[in-house]
Write a structure and sequence with these properties.
With about 100 residues, this protein is mainly alpha-helical. A hairpin with a 2-residue loop joins strand 3 and strand 4. The longest helix is centred in the N-terminal third of the chain and has 30 residues.
């Protein structure tokens, strides 16, 4: 893992509670203004998924579930494991959305 990825990861981990507070504020604003908030974890290509700290990801989802419901498409399946469905590791092809 290169320095930039490590530094970025540490910054995100150190900010997770603040990020969740911000999401909670957004949720409250949405409720106040009758806006339906939809939170989604988009699919991750297999290599990207496996490069993540899965324990940390599970913790984030658990904490987020205390704030709001969310759609979770982060899993290994026929689309995330097949490179055909991906332009590269972070951008899936439109057919994945169907």
């Amino acid at each position: 893992m290169n320095y930039f990825k490590i530094k970025s990861y540490i910054n995100i981990v150190n900010r997770i509670d603040k990020i969740l507070e911000e999401i909670n504020e957004i949720k409250k604003l949405c409720e106040k203004n009758s806006i339906n908030l939809v939170v989604v974890f988009l699919p991750l290509q297999k290599n990207t998924y496996l490069a993540n700290n899965l324990k940390y990801l599970k913790e984030v989802k658990s904490k987020l579930s205390l704030i709001t419901d969310y759609w979770d498409f982060v899993e290994l399946n026929e689309y995330t494991e097949n490179e055909y469905y991906w332009y590269e590791n972070s951008h899936y092809r439109p057919m994945v959305e169907m």
